[in-house]
Amino acid sequence: MLDPENTKVLSWMRRTVGSPQVVIAVNFTAEPQTVNLAASGAGLQVGHMVTLLKSPGGATPKSLAAIKLKAYGVYIGEVR
């Protein structure tokens, strides 16, 4: 888990030896949410984010510091 204190957005990272890190963030509320996963202390090494999947109409974040999720929105990105 990347932000265990956040009760509105569930976010985690998939990390496998030899593969890029993948970040998943899911908004479980009916309100838009913005999460900062850069400050999570999870050891994310961010040079660049590549969007793998996002909710229709969702914004593409430029960094892990501001992932904007629509109501019940999802973002999945590869950390490079």
Please tell me about this protein's structure.
It is a single chain. This protein has a four-stranded antiparallel beta sheet, with no helix packed on it. A two-stranded antiparallel sheet has the order 3-5. The chain is built from no helices and six strands. 0% of the residues lie in helices and 39% in strands. It has one domain (9-79): Immunoglobulin-like (Sandwich). A hairpin with a 6-residue loop joins strand 1 and strand 2. It is globular. It has 80 residues and is mainly β.
Judged by helices, strands and strand pairing, the structural class is mainly beta
Main β-sheet, spatial strand arrangement: 1-2-6-4
Largest sheet: 4 strands, antiparallel
Task: Note the total helix count.
Answer: 0
Q: Which consecutive residue ranges, at least 5 long each, have pLDDT under 50?
A: none
Give the integer mean of the pLDDT values.
Answer: 87
Q: What distance lies between the first and last C-alpha atoms, to the nearest angstrom?
A: 19 Å
Globular, elongated, flat, extended or rod-shaped: what is the shape? globular
Calculate Rg over CA atoms: 12 Å
Question: What is the number of domains?
Answer: 1
Order of helices and strands: EEEEEE
Assess the beta-strand content as a share of residues.
35-45%
CATH level-four homologous superfamily name: Golgi alpha-mannosidase II
Q: How much helicity do the residues have?
A: under 10%
Report the CATH topology name: Immunoglobulin-like
Text of the CATH class:
Mainly Beta
